[in-house]
Amino acid sequence: MESLFVYILSLILGAMVGSFLNVCIYRIPENVSLWWPPSTCPKCKTRIKFYDNIPVLSYLILRGKCRNCKAGISAQYPLIEATTSLLTLFVVYKLGLTYWTAITLLVTYSLIVLSMIDFRLYIIPDRFSIGLTVLGLVVFFINPAFSGNLTAKFLQCLTGGAVGFFGLWGMAIIGSLLFKKEAMGGGDIKLIAAVGTLTGVSGVISTLIIASFLGLVYYAVLFILKKNPQNKTIPFGPFISIGLFINILFPNNLLLLY
Ligand SMILES: [Zn+2]
Fold first, then answer.
1. Where are the domains of the chain?
2. Which of 10, 64, 112, 204 has a CB 3.0–4.6 Å from the CB of 164, allowing a cystine?
3. pLDDT confidence of residue 185
């Protein structure tokens, strides 16, 4: 247990990071600098004042409207800020203040951005999927998912990445032969490689079970609500992300179930 101060600070810093993640979600796919220009209202182009840019609170105070032109502000902004804030608190609560907490937060923030980009545009930028795979390979020695000596830990990390990547690649090829339709994109496969280097083989299996289940539920809901008339492929990145988040916080949960 950390002190109440640490938890409150986690909520506040998390909300501020969330505000930055909103910028990332919109600017990374457009290849616009994250630092310049400062945020403006998309409608009237007025620069947003610092006091109107307080995470969550500003949206509530302004009742979701631009101070200048009263154009509606997307509810996505406060939702991402609140989600990031709560997830930061949860990670710090679960893991305490350790180096692994910092890594887990970095992974969590990356997953939020890549999920939103995949959800909007059906792409997972390589900087996230490949970036997280490399991160897993670099920090394997402090990863609580792996056990034994350094060599053993590194092998578990490497095996996880390889099984994730080649396993999914094989399944994607079989799937496209069977259904004559691309079931899983290259971005998803690279993201599963990251799941492997961060959570090992059991994490890959557990993540795939969680992601498939959530994907099916989502698909069923869209079907019932008739929200997917063209029967489009659904983005899988957000569901893989939820699976990875659960597995990084609860490593080897498949073994625990056993
Ligand atoms: Zn405006």
1. 1-97, 124-258
2. 204
3. 80
